Amino acid sequence: MIRKRTLIFVIVTIALLLVSSGIINLHLDLRLLALTPKILKYKGLIQKYAAKENLDPRLICALIAQESGFDEKARSAVGAQGLTQLMPKTAKELGVDDPLDAEQNIAGAARHLHTLYHVFPESQPDHQHQLVLASYNAGLGRVRDAQALARHQQKANPLLWEPVRKALSQLTQQHASIHKQVWGSEAPPHGYFEGFNETSNYVKRVMHYYGRLCFYGEVLFFL
Q1: Does residue 16 belong to any structural domain of this protein?
Q2: What phi, psi does 18 have (nearest 5°)?
Q3: How many CB atoms lie within 10 A of CB 13?
Q4: 99 domain-assigned
């Protein structure tokens, strides 16, 4: 029989290996667990509009966890509002009169995500999720510019996230000479983009939440 001390050592060692390898992110995992009551509070609305727009409710849930931590009154420094942090212009385009109303906010974001998913129909699911999330965070125009840059500069598949992620980092003024080769102008069609790190980290975090929700969503969150 394995001694108790040895068993504890083995468990701790495995946990540390999982953390160091990135399989477990203690900060994000504990934050998601702490959000359980709020997830349960809003899961009915999430499931309602996910079904309406043919989306995975776990993806919407992961997005909200990252965007606002399920604070329906959240406001960002740049003006984004509500659970899914809709920008005023986007909210208006989506027909959302009150972004701080939870149902309107989730409904609007679901419509927006539905549109974005239809932009990348040929991408495999994981890549499609990441391209959609990058578009949600940085704007579809930025991702389109990055796809064009990936296709030209890297001779890479623009339907895959990694080459697009790399190309997003090249939409800065420092890479004006490359832009001129692609578009004949020093600036990309949708302007320079300095938010690469933010968008890259955003996609990574939402996908981490999504993975966790897929793993134990039915048990803890009933999603």
Answers
A1: no
A2: -65, -40
A3: 10
A4: yes
- How many residues are there in the chain? 223
Give dist(CA 38, CA 58) in Å, integer.
Answer: 14
Residues 48 and 79 placed together within one structural domain of the fold: yes
Tell me 70's DSSP state.
S
Residue-wise pLDDT tens digits, 151-166: 998 788 999 999 999 9
Residue 81 β-bridge partners: 75, 86
Place of tokens 């009933």: 222
pLDDT in tens, 88-128: 999 999 999 999 999 999 999 999 999 999 999 999 999 99
Query: DSSP per residue over 101-112, as a string?
Result: SHHHHHHHHHHH
Which are the contacts of 196, defined by CB distance < 8 A and separation ≥ 6? 168, 169, 171, 172
Q: Please count the structural domains in the chain.
A: 2
Mean pLDDT in the chain?
89
- Catalytic machinery residues: 67
- 124 shares its domain with 201: yes
Q: Is the pLDDT of residue 3 over 70?
A: no
List, in sequence order, the alpha helices (H) in 53-160. 57-67, 88-93, 102-117, 125-138, 140-149
